[in-house]
Amino acid sequence: MQQSSGKSGHRAIRSYVLRAGRVTPGQQRALDEHWSRFGVEFEPQALDLARVFGRDAARTLEIGFGNGEHLLERALRQPDHDFLGVEVHRPGIGHLLLAAATAGVPNLRVIAHDAIEVLRQQLAPGSLNEVQLLFPDPWPKKRHHKRRIVQPEFVALVASRLASGGRLHLATDWEPYAEDMLRVLNDCSLLANCAAAGGFIDVGALAARRATRFERRGERLGHRVRELLYRRC
Ligand SMILES: C[S@@+](CC[C@H](N)C(=O)[O-])C[C@H]1O[C@@H](n2cnc3c(N)ncnc32)[C@H](O)[C@@H]1O
Questions:
Q1: How many whole angstroms from 64 Cα to the centroid of ligand 1?
Q2: How many A from CA of 15 to the centre of ligand 1?
Q3: Residue to substitute in 4, 10, 86, 87 for testing ligand 1 pocket (most ligand atoms within 8 angstroms of CB)
Q4: CATH topology of domain 39-232
Q5: Cα 137 to averaged position of ligand 1 atoms, centre (Å)
Q6: d(Cα 113, Cα 128) in Å, to the nearest integer?
Q7: Beta carbons within 10 angstroms of residue 185's beta carbon
Q8: SS3 state of residue 39
Q9: pTM for this model (two decimals)
Q10: Which long-range contacts (CB under 8 A, 24 or more apart) does 196-202 make?
Q11: For 19-77, how does the pLDDT look when each residue is reduced to its tens digit (9 = 90+)?
Q12: Average pLDDT score, the chain
């Protein structure tokens, strides 16, 4: 398993900082034993996703899946659908691999690299049916706003990787970021806001999903969750 250095590539500003997070012995074992089964190496060339998954099915990409609970739950719930997760945090990847191996899920793959480089170089235009970005780092300090992953170029890149009619689903518990996301996404000509008044979608408008770790943390802090849903025109 290659590790994203966070220093190579074309972008000067990253949406993450690789911290020396502790990988538990169980997570390390999972990385050693199960990467060959679930992992896809980053390479600067377009992936043949039908080959990666061994079939041609609808595909969801989850960007920054954290510990992967939500991604695994969806893969188990929708066996006729394929799920690709991209994350840079090794403990989270190890956590997901351990759970995925225990569950024996066949329709899940993981790339351990910067999602922006993966989108740009490894995923072909129109190759995805759904992209989820759930509780991305809010970077609350003004001087860090440039690190927020939701920027016009990122949104245009994601939109270009969606097939026509494909959907982009985002959630955050940080109100100022939610407003910022709404502005940036509504400005993207390749996407149409699915909410009636061009705003946030109502709580419960989408099928029930497992709350993510960061979502549960936000709830404990009393934060309101905002969700956004767009369709590729
Ligand atoms: C605030 S956490 C949320 C994790 C998870 N989605 C949740 O809701 O629990 C944001 C995650 O995005 C990951 N991340 C940030 N920028 C990324 C990028 N460019 N590529 C891949 N992962 C990224 C971080 O490593 C982190 O695990």
A1: 3
A2: 8
A3: 87
A4: Rossmann fold (3.40.50)
A5: 6
A6: 18
A7: 22
A8: strand
A9: 0.96
A10: 200/226, 200/227, 200/228, 201/227, 201/228, 201/229
A11: 877 999 999 999 999 999 999 999 999 999 999 999 999 999 999 999 999 999 999 99
A12: 94
Catalytically annotated residues: 137
Q: What is the pLDDT of residues 101-120, one digit of tens each?
A: 999 999 999 999 999 999 99
pLDDT attached to residue 80: 98
**Alpha carbons 68 and 72: distance in angstroms, whole number:** 6
In DSSP terms, which residues pair with 192 in a beta bridge? 231
Instruction: Kindly tell me if the per-residue pLDDT of 11 is higher than 60.
Output: no
Q: Which atom of ligand 1 is nearest to 213's Cα?
A: 9
CA of residue 34 to ligand 1 center, whole Å: 21
pLDDT value, residue 20: 74
Q: Which pair of structure tokens corresponds to residue 98?
A: 């351990």
Give residue for tokens 């940080």: 174
Q: Which of 65, 72, 123 gets mutated to test ligand 1 (max ligand atoms within 8 A of its CB)?
A: 65
- Locate the ligand 1 atom nearest the alpha carbon of residue 15 and give its number: 16
Q: At what angle do helices 69-77 and 90-103 cross, to 10 degrees?
A: 30
- Which tokens hold the place of 148? 């927020």
- Token pair, residue 104, equals 């024996």
Output the ligand 1 site: residues, CB below 6 A.
15-16, 63-66, 86-89, 92, 114-116, 134-137, 149, 212-215
Structure tokens, 92: 């989270």
